Amino acid sequence: MKKIINKPENFVDETMEGIELAYGDKVKLLNGDKRILVTNYPVQKGKVGIVTAGGSGHLPTFLGYVGQGLLDGCAVGNVFASPSSQKMADMIKACDYGSGVLCLYGNYGGDTMNFEMACELAEFDDVQTAQVRVRDDVASSPVENADKRRGVAGMVYAFKVAGAAAEKMMSLEEVVAVTEKALANIKTIGVATSPCIVPEVGKPTFSIDEDKIEIGMGIHGEPGIEVRQMMTADEIAQVAVDTLTKEMPLGEGDEVSVMVNGLGATPLEEQLIVYRKLHMLLADKGVKVYMPHIGEFATSMEMAGLSVTFFKLDAQLKELLASPAKSPFYTNLNK
Question: Which residues are annotated as catalytic?
C-alpha cells in the first residue's frame, strides 16, 4: 500500500483536524469531537436543520457539504463505516434551531440502524426529527425492489435541495416533501476501472482485469451488475443514458441537471469527455441541461471510474438547485 498518510489508524482524525485548520471560518468540530463537523456560518433561528452521516473515505461527501444552504452537520465513522448513534444524536441536537432536524443519508444498513436510534435519543430531548434515505443507485437493486437501493452521488443534489428549502424557512414537513420529490427524480449509474484501498486494511477492496470495466460498482466496492471489455468515453456515456432513461424517460422539453462524478482517480479531462457525449445524446432527445456538475462530488478513496446522475427538474426543483450555497467544497452563488 502506497498512501500519503501517517498511521492508518489516525487517518480519519487527522483528516478532520486538517479540515478544521483549513476551513475553520466555515466549519468547526462540535466541542472538539473529531467525528462531528458542524457549520460555522450564521444560521437563521427557526430554520430546519439538515444533517447527514456516513463512513469516511468519500470526500467531498459527506463532510464537504457542511456549510450554508446545504448541510448543517455531519457525523463520520471510520473509512466506509457508520458513526455511532450517540455521535449522530449529539450532531442532531447541535443542529436543532427550533423547527426540527431532517436526517438525510444514504440507504445503508449501519447508517439506518444508527440514525433510527439517534433520532430516538434526540426526541427524548424534545428535538423533532424526520428521516429521508437516498436510494439513487439504479444498479444496486432492480426497480421492483427500489427501496433496497444504495445512496450514491445523487445525494449531493438532495443535500442541495433540502438545504435550500430550509433556508427558505419551509417547515420540517415541507422540507421532507420537497426532498422526497427531488429524490424521485434523481437516478445514478456508476462504472469502475480499478479498486481503492482502505488504509487500515491495506489491500484493494476488489480486483478487476486491466482490460475490463465494471458497470454498477458501488462506492464501497460492492459488486456491479456486469463486467465488460473496457469501453470508450462515448460508449460509457451511451450506457449511462440508456440505463437512466429506461427508468426515467426523458424527451422534448424536459430539463435535467447532469452530474459526472469522479470516484477519486479519474482526471477531470476524462470526466469532461464523457459529459460532452452525454450532452449530445440528451440534446438529440430535445432535453436541456441546466447547471451541470462535473468533478469529484462523492469519491471512494482512490477508486478509478465515475458515476453519472440525472436530476429531472421542474420549476420548484430548478429554483432550489439554483439557490445560493456555500461550503468549503461546494459553492453556488446563482441568484
Answer: 58, 220
